[in-house]
Amino acid sequence: MNQQSRLTFDNSYARLPERFYSRQLPEPVSTPGPIRVNEALARHLGIDPDWLASREGTEVIAGNRIPDGADPIATVYAGHQFGGWNPQLGDGRAILLGEVIAADGIRHDIQLKGSGRTPYSRGGDGRAPLGPVLREYIVSEAMASLDIPSTRSLAAVTTGEPVYRETALPGAVLARVAQSHIRIGTFQFFASKQDTEALQILVAHVIARHYPDLAAADNPAQALLQEVVSQQAQLVARWQLVGFIHGVMNTDNMLVSGETIDYGPCAFMDNFNPDTVYSSIDHGGRYAYRNQPRIARWNLAFLAQTLLPLLHEVQEQAVTLAQESIDAFPDLFRDAHQQGIACKLGFRPEGEEDESLLKDLLSVMGETGVDFTLSFRHLADLANGDAGDEGVSAIFEFPQVFNSWLERWRKRLEKEPTTPAERQGSMYAANPAFIPRNHLVEEAIEAATTDSDFEPFHALVERLAKPFEYDPSQSRLALPPRPEQVVRQTFCGT
Ligand code: AMP
Ligand code: MG
After folding, report:
1. Which of 304, 145, 338 is nearest to 229 (CA)?
2. CB 436, CB 135: distance < 8 Å
3. What's the average model confidence in pLDDT over 455-483?
4. Separation of alpha carbons 206 and 310, rounded Å
5. Interatomic CA distance for residues 56 and 66, integer angstroms
6. HSE of 223 in the Cβ direction (CA atoms, 13 Å)?
7. Ligand 1 mutation pick, 80, 81, 93, max ligand atoms within 8 A of CB
């Protein structure tokens, strides 16, 4: 039997006109070695995980062997990076191997990241160091386990070749999975070339692929814009609810599928401070935690702009439709965020009083700088007596200044129709105990990069697969960093 038949491709993007991509094979590497295979995801995609972990599977991920049915391409896009327009970007270190359709009928891209140069590499080498590959693996999978739409990590391999950055680093390739890799920047590329035909093709492709219900809309471009605005509002609300800071919210890093993409300088906040920025290149704090909703809206305005010629033949009317769609963002975001926080606090939001309860909590958290994740998890412990040693209360407690807020919160809970046990159950399901804390991610990367010790990486990935189940024997992975462990800066994986 042909081993390669275990991957069944159907490559819809490669069937689009040739100006959407360049055909490009990955560049082979000297001595590929397996790091990890995501067994559950492989099975979901109909790929045999044992084959993926085999010599042959490792060679496919490394780019040394092209499986039957693949049609490797590098896609083209443009984008605003830190506010500045870049007319020509594209997959500079990634190859879209092809698309597979999962058992649930959903189409997924399989992309190799770090697979060598492409026509869009500009000055880059097309390669990825091991550290950023492990970071993306850990954080993207943690996001998925937190129920936040995200690109996924199917497998990672080492290349056996060094990658030269400030120093020589081990090279690696990540197999990334996404419902598609179509970005706001993909629309921007064609809009900037005034290629309305390509925009029409792209809109039809995205609707057929991600939002088939919109195909029957009177104005499909407007329906798509509204849908993407809504998806992004919900996505960013979910980031805020877990303290996730993306770090590089450029328009080429926002997918119209509504999945989180690009785990370069991203980080989860430890102590609550809305001004937090980790990325070493984000000098002005453009992508700080508190700015994320505003930036998402800013990015969406560019998506709207690209769609103007499709929204209405009269330009003024097109602008009005675009504006209306974008103006919906703040309310959509606020609703999603308030619903989410109320759920984290154990009640359904009702009126202004609840809004001020939520606001006051965040303001005490901000003043005291308590740990964001453990604060909410501790509240879940407190929702039904106290979980004692079985909960995070054994490793975290609120300072005294929270007492009056806690009293208000308890009074508010009495008005709920749910029992304390029910409330606690739903709060545990909304407030993770384990998140990919920066110091743990760095520790895993350091062990792998300097000692070829992948144990901390595997242990972290496995622990983060069940973020809502606290295990006191693994409290080390739930604790915030000690002062000497604090990571203040993260770096893009380039
Ligand atoms: P990012 O910062 O990951 O959003 O990447 C921005 C752009 O730089 C994209 O077009 C990437 O494909 C390209 N790029 C990043 N790293 C490399 C690299 N090592 N080699 C070639 N192109 C790269
Ligand atoms: Mg990117």
Report:
1. 304
2. no
3. 97
4. 14
5. 10
6. 16
7. 93
Residue 118 CA: nearest ligand 1 atom is: 21
Whether 125 lines ligand 1, by a CB cut-off of 6 Å, is yes
**75, β-bridge pairs:** 21
| pLDDT tens string 222-271 | 999 999 999 999 999 999 999 999 999 999 999 999 999 999 999 999 99
Asked whether the predicted pLDDT for residue 2 surpasses 50, the reply is no
Ligand nearest to the CA of 124: 1
CA distance 293 to 322: 18
Nearest residue (CA) to ligand 1, atom 6: 89
Polymer length of the chain: 494
Full-model pTM = 0.97
Q: Which atom of ligand 1 is nearest to the CA of 127?
A: 19
Instruction: Tell me the C-alpha distance between 205 and 182, whole Å.
Output: 10
pLDDT digits (tens, 9 = 90+) for 449-462: 999 999 999 999 99
User: Is 252 assigned a catalytic role?
Assistant: yes
Our answer on whether the CB atom of 492 is closer than 6 Å to any ligand 1 atom is yes
90: left (phi over 0), alpha (psi -120 to 50) or beta: left
Question: Which two structure tokens, joined as six digits, stand for 100?
Answer: 């597979």
- CA dist., res. 233 & res. 490, Å (int): 25
